[in-house]
Amino acid sequence: MSKVTFSPEAKNQFEEILSRYPEKRAAMLPTLYLAEKEFGYISPEVEVYIGELLEVPPVKVREVLTFYTLFASKPRGKYHFQICRGLSCDLRGCTKIIEHLAGKLDLKSEETSTDMKYTLTEVECLGACETAPMMQVNEDYQGHLTPVKIDKMLKDLK
Amino acid sequence: MPAMAEKIISPFFDIKNSHTIDVYEKHGGYQAIQDVLRNKTPQDVIDAVLQANLRGLGGAGFPAGRKWSFIPKDSPKPKYLVVNADESEPGTFKDRYIMDNYTHGLFEGIMLAAYAIGCHKAFIYIRGEYIRQAENLVEQRDAARARGYLGKGIFGTDYDLDIVVHRGAGAYICGEETALLESLEGKKGWPRMKPPFPAIEGAFKCPTIVNNVETLSYVPSIMTKGPEWFANIGSERNGGMRLYSVSGLVKKPGVYELPLGTPLREIIYEHAGGLLDGRELKAVIPGGSSSPILTPDEIDVKMDYDSLAAIGSMLGSAGIIVMDETVDIVRSLYVVTRFYHHESCGQCTPCREGTGWAEKILKRILDGDGVPQDIKTLESIGNHIIGNTICPLGDAASMPLQSYLKKFRHEFEARVASKNGTGQVVEETVEDWN
Predict the structure, then answer these.
(1) Residue from B294, B262, B263 nearest B281 by CA
(2) What is the ipTM of this complex?
C-alpha cells in the first residue's frame, strides 16, 4: 500500500479524469499533473500510489515520469524559469540572455536555489519563435527578452 | 492563383475575443457543420476535402481526404479522431495562433472530420508547455457543450460528439502520430512500427485518424465556400492557404497566411519585412528545423510540397527560419543537432547514438578542437541514420547534417583547418572508416 493519498478534492478530479478515457492507463499523464499539483513533485511514494490507482506496476509510472521533461521528480522553486535555447532564440542572442539570467540567479541549468525560490532550466523550442529570445515563467510565456527586462521581472517577483 | 487570395484563418488573429462562440458565429461560424449534419453524408465531406486538395499541414503533406477514406466502414469498434496539437518543430508556432484565436474554427473542423469518419470522441493532444492554450480549449469546449454544440445530439441532431483535451508533457517525438497515440494511452512516446496504420489500428486498438490543428481548421471554409474555390487558391495538387511561421533575423517575425505556392522570397522580403539593418541573406530553413537548408540563390522557390521537393528540400511545417550574413552556420547546425539528440526517444540505435555522436563532434569543432576527418564522420553519421529508423526523427536529424555540410562545406572546413584560431593545420587523427 502506498504511503500517500489524494485529498478528497483531488480524488474527485481523478475520477473525472478517468471518465474521459476508454482505458485506465490513458489517465497517466493527467494524473501525474494532478499529483504534481497535489504533492509538489512526484516522489517514489507517489509513483507507487499512481501505479495503484491506474492498476499498473510502479515501473510503468517511473518510465513515463522519466521519459517526459515536464514532470518534477524533485522539488522545484516557486518560480520556474524555462529558458529557450532553440535555433530561432539562438539566432536572436539567447546565449547572452541565458548567461545573464543564470548569473543573476546564481544557478546553472536544472538547479534550484537553496531558498526554493527559483529553478532554472534550459529547454528546447517552446513554439514562440516570433518573440525570440523567450522563456516560460511558470505558466506564462515571456518574449523579446533583454537583460533590462529580466532585471525588472526579477525585481517584480521578489 | 488570384493576386489577393482571401485569407481564412488569420483575420481572426486581429479580432477581439475571436476565440469565443459569439464572435465566431458573427463571422459565419458553425454554418458548415449544421448544413452538413442535416443535408450531407459523411462521404460528401470526404469527397469535398479530396476535391479541395487539402493536404496534411503538420508536415507530411498527406492528402487529408484520402487519409479519412482509409477508416474501415464496417468495423464495429469505436473510431477516434486525434488532433495533433503537439506543435514542437523548431521554428513553428502557427497552431498556437489558431488555438488562441480560432478556437471554434478548430472545433468546427473537428466536428466535420469526426462526422466524416463516424467518430463520437475526439482527443486534442496539445503540447504540455501550451498551458494557456489548453486552458482556453477546455473553457471554450465547455461553452460549446453548454450550447449543445458538443455532447449528446449536437445542434439538435441525433449525432453525438465530445472533445477531450489531453496535455502532453514535453517530448518532441510525440508529434509523430504513432508516438502521440502511445503517449495518449499513458505510455512513453515510442513510435510504433507501421503497418498497421492508425486508420486501421490507432488509439486503444481502434480505427483512428490523426490530423494537425491547421489541417482541420481549414475544413469549415472548404464546406462553406466549396472545394473548387479552395483548390484554386494554391498551386497544382497543393490546394488552399497555409500559415507560414517566420522567425529568425527578419524585421517582422510572425504568422502569415498566404496561398500554398507563394514564393519564399516574397514571404521573407514583403510579408516579413526583409532582413535587419540591410544585411545580406545567408541561408533559409523553409519548413521547420528538420528541412534541408536553402541558399540565397534558391529562394525563388514556390512554397508548396512539390516545388520544395523538386529542389531537395521540403515544406514540412512551413516554419521559415531566416539567417543573415552574421550567422555562424557551424553553430546553427550544432544547435539543431543538439535538439534532435535531446529529443531522440532512444528506441532505434542509429538515431539514439548517431545524434549524440554528431552533437559531440560539432561541439568540438565549435570549440576549435575539430579535425578535418570530422566532416566526413558527420556525413557518415547522417547517411547511416537516414532511412534506418522506425520514425522520421532520424531523417529529421540527418537532413540538416547532410544539407549544411554540403552547402556550407567551406565554413566547416575553415573551422577544422585551424586549431584555436592559430591557423595551424592539424594532422588527421582518425582513420577514414568508410
Answers:
(1) B294
(2) 0.97
- Cα B38 to chain center, whole Å? 33
CB spacing of B170 vs A54 below 8 angstroms:
no
Q: Which fold, B241-324? A: Ubiquitin-like (UB roll) (3.10.20)
Hey, do B241-324 and B329-417 end up sharing a CATH topology, with the first three levels equal? no
Residue B210: what pLDDT? Answer: 98
Span B205-247, pLDDT tens digits: 999 999 999 999 999 999 999 999 999 998 777 779 999 999 9
Residues within 8 A of B (CB atoms), A 100-119 only: none
pLDDT single digits (tens) A105-123 = 999 999 999 999 999 999 9
State the CATH class of domain B329-417.
mainly alpha
> Where do the domains of chain B lie?
10-233, 241-324, 329-417
Q: Is A137 on the interface with B (CB under 8 A)?
A: no
Nearest to B106, CA basis, from B26, B50, B168, B24: B24
Whether B386 contacts chain A with CB within 8 A: no
pLDDT tens digit sequence for B64-110: 999 999 999 999 999 999 999 999 999 999 999 999 999 999 999 99
Whether residue B335 and residue A90 make contact (CB cut-off 8 A), yes or no, is yes
Walk me through the domains of chain A, giving residue ranges and CATH numbers.
8-67 (1.10.10.1590), 79-156 (3.40.30.10)
Q: Which residue of B has its CA nearest to A20?
A: B164
The number of C-beta contacts closer than 8 angstroms across A and B is: 141
State the Cα–Cα distance between residues B240 and B303, nearest whole angstrom: 12
Q: Which of A124, A131, A141 to mutate: most B Cβ within 10 Å?
A: A124
A134 in B contact zone (CB under 8 Å):
no
Mean pLDDT value across residues B130-138: 98
Cβ of A88 and B247 within 8 Å? Answer: yes
Question: Which CATH number is associated with domain B10-233?
Answer: 3.40.50.11540
What is the three-state SS of B255-308? EEEEECCCEHHHHHHHHCCCEHHHCCEEEEECCCCCCCCECHHHCCCECCHHHH
